[in-house]
Amino acid sequence: MPTDATFILAGLFVVAAAAGWAFARFGGSREKEDIKAPISADYLRGLNLVLDRQTDEALELFVRMAKVDSDTLETHFALGHLFRRRGEVDRAIRVHQNLLARPNLNETQRHQALFSLAEDYLGAGLYDRAEKLFLQLTESPTIATRALENLINIYERESEWMRAIEAHRKLEVLNGEKSSRGGQYYCELAELARVQGNFELARQYLKNSIRGGSGALRGILIRAAIEKDQGDYPEALRLYEQIIERDRRFMVEVLSPLLECHKKIGSIKELEKYLEQLLKHEPSLQQDIAYAAVIGNFTELDIITRCMENFILSNDLFRSLVDVKAIMSEDPKTRHEHASRIADALRGLSVNSARYLCTNCGYSSQSFIWHCPSCKNWETVRPLRTFQLDISMS
Ligand SMILES: [Zn+2]
């Protein structure tokens, strides 16, 4: 059923068409020359039908008008756009299909109608049909850029990374400038190859990702995981430390594989030294280590449990809830038990709270993502450095 808003919009459309006619009829002299006839009787009939709330009949009339009156082309595009904006995609598709059936469209008009129809298909969730039309338009002299942008969005949505790379390359040529997006697609392919155990292919994709000029941090993370998977633990450790060097927020992601690699080669004391050094230069990292330890339930190293206890027992919220003085005066074993219980509760809370945040749009999620589903930017999501509980209180 047509909505009230549709009636209003369609009414506005007809009024606008009539106003446009009146301007052309009585306005500037050049436009005046183009007017071959007084306002079309069909427009007035269309207006009546809209006012009588007979949108389907009005639509039929406008479609028929397109067949006989090429001057109404732009207004039909506007009508199709309005229908699509209102979510009445079937009507928008009918308008644009009828325009395409007109034999006298020039190339630019035909491309515009194809593009509008592809947008209708997108609106209806018919991505394969939209893709076919956008592909037809990638050679269009007028609309290729927008067609490629839409194709890239479809391929990103469907994780068609090779096709995304191809469309992205064409877009770079058209725009005459490089963009970092292509590097992200290669990272996606590299990660897929790594998970499937095809390390050689994964390395190849990573090389292309570097050439693409993007995903530096992500590339290091994938390389580190490849080295770990292949048993080159010293190299994996070097790369994981590089990630912390570049962005402290990744401590929560990297502490677990750091522990794993050190355990594999029996160098767990080295990790203790490494963390001591980090804290010496940057004491605030205690919070990051504590957060990572609580999330990952790490209790292997004294320094990690110490960070966790200090963080918990110096937290303003917990100080107001528990008798921290009494806990601190307990023997180390009892103190540790108290801290562990609080850590368990915090871990339980974190299961249902956001752990990652997009630095561009504020989108939050519980799992790590490289492509923000909200603002569509790449590599803008970062791990939080502490519990949401603290953030909401600050
Ligand atoms: Zn975002």
From TrEMBL:
- Keyword check for Repeat, yes or no: yes
Q: Which InterPro entries match?
A: CellSynth/LPSAsmb/PSIAsmb, LapB, Rubredoxin_2, TPR-like_helical_dom_sf, TPR_rpt
| Coiled-coil stretches noted in the UniProt entry, renumbered to this chain | none
The leader peptide range reads: none
Domain LapB rubredoxin metal binding, residue spans: 356-383
Might you name a Gene Ontology BP term for this protein?
lipopolysaccharide metabolic process
PANTHER family in UniProt: LIPOPOLYSACCHARIDE ASSEMBLY PROTEIN B, TPR REPEAT-CONTAINING PROTEIN PA4667
Which named protein is this?
Answer: LapB rubredoxin metal binding domain-containing protein
